[in-house]
Amino acid sequence: MLAFLLPAMAAAAPADTVTAGTLEHATPAALAALLLPPADAARIVGGRIRADGRIVGYAVAVWERSVPVAPTICRRPVHSRFYFDQSGLGRHGDPSLVLVTVSGTESFESFGTTYPDRATPERCAALDTYVGGPPHLAEPTIRALTRLTEAMRDAVAPGPLPFAMRCLSDYEERPCADERAALASLPLSELRGISFENYYYAPRDAPPAAPGEARMPTMQFGMSGPDGQSWFVTLIGDRDRLREVLMRRIMVIYH
């Protein structure tokens, strides 16, 4: 009996090797079979591969159905794995090149916003821009995205803002001709990530987090505008209230 079970178990396990050609032509269902056991792979609705620019390798990601988790926020479970040419001798464009992975499949939750529209299953499914992070930052990420879009809605509405604003740049004295308009028109489709680490993206004068709470979130956006720079937006406040929105234009070299 055991002799029959072992081959079946091996076939059901995620694959540790794959050829470059197989990856490059794989459907989302085929990618899911590489990364996940059959029961988990059956939940996958999309996937993609992304070539590494430094070595012959591919980041593979597949995702499950996205669902609303807040008025304008969607949650999408993601599973990823990295395959690469361990020999270092392979060539780009060789479909027979065998790629390996030395780590297991990483699973995490990603989040996106349908602002200014309300999140529905249909809008979540159509949404392209998601940012992910470790499980312990899921709630802070939802709160940060919600707070950012609420601030953008306040910037569109008439009347005074319920929070302070600053707009800074290393290259310009006045990077925002109209701070309120800049906040209202942030390119949410270019959101690249959310950081809660002061030493990484947040300004040095950001206040420390309260005990048991995540640090102030800083959102990084992709390149926008004729100056070729990117927005970094830090939300300063506590769990109950947003006190200040700090917007900075920063030059980032994307690879």
Topology:
Blueprint: H1 2-12, E1 17-19, H2 20-24, H3 28-35, H4 38-41, E2 44-51, E3 57-64, E4 67-70, E5 73-84, E6 98-100, E7 106-113, H5 121-126, E8 131-133, H6 138-156, E9 164-169, H7 179-184, E10 191-195, E11 218-224, E12 229-237, E13 242-250
Parallel strand pairs: 9-13
Antiparallel strand pairs: 1-6, 2-3, 3-5, 4-5, 5-7, 7-8, 10-11, 11-12, 12-13
Annotation keywords:
13 strands; disordered N terminus; globular; 23% helix; 255 residues; 2 domains; 6-stranded antiparallel β-sheet; 5-stranded mixed β-sheet; alpha+beta
How does this model look, in words?
The chain folds into two domains: 2-133, no CATH class; 138-250, no CATH class. Strands 2, 3, 4, 5, 7 and 8 form a six-stranded antiparallel sheet that branches. The protein has a five-stranded mixed sheet with strand order 9-13-12-11-10. It has a two-stranded antiparallel ribbon with strand order 1-6. Strand 2 and strand 3 (57-64) form a beta hairpin. The longest helix is centred in the middle third of the chain and has 19 residues, at 138-156. The protein is built from seven helices and 13 strands. It starts with a helix and ends in a 5-residue tail after the last strand. The chain has 255 residues and is an alpha+beta fold. It has helices at 2-12, 20-24, 28-35, 38-41, 121-126, 138-156, 179-184, and strands at 17-19, 44-51, 57-64, 67-70, 73-84, 98-100, 106-113, 131-133, 164-169, 191-195, 218-224, 229-237, 242-250.
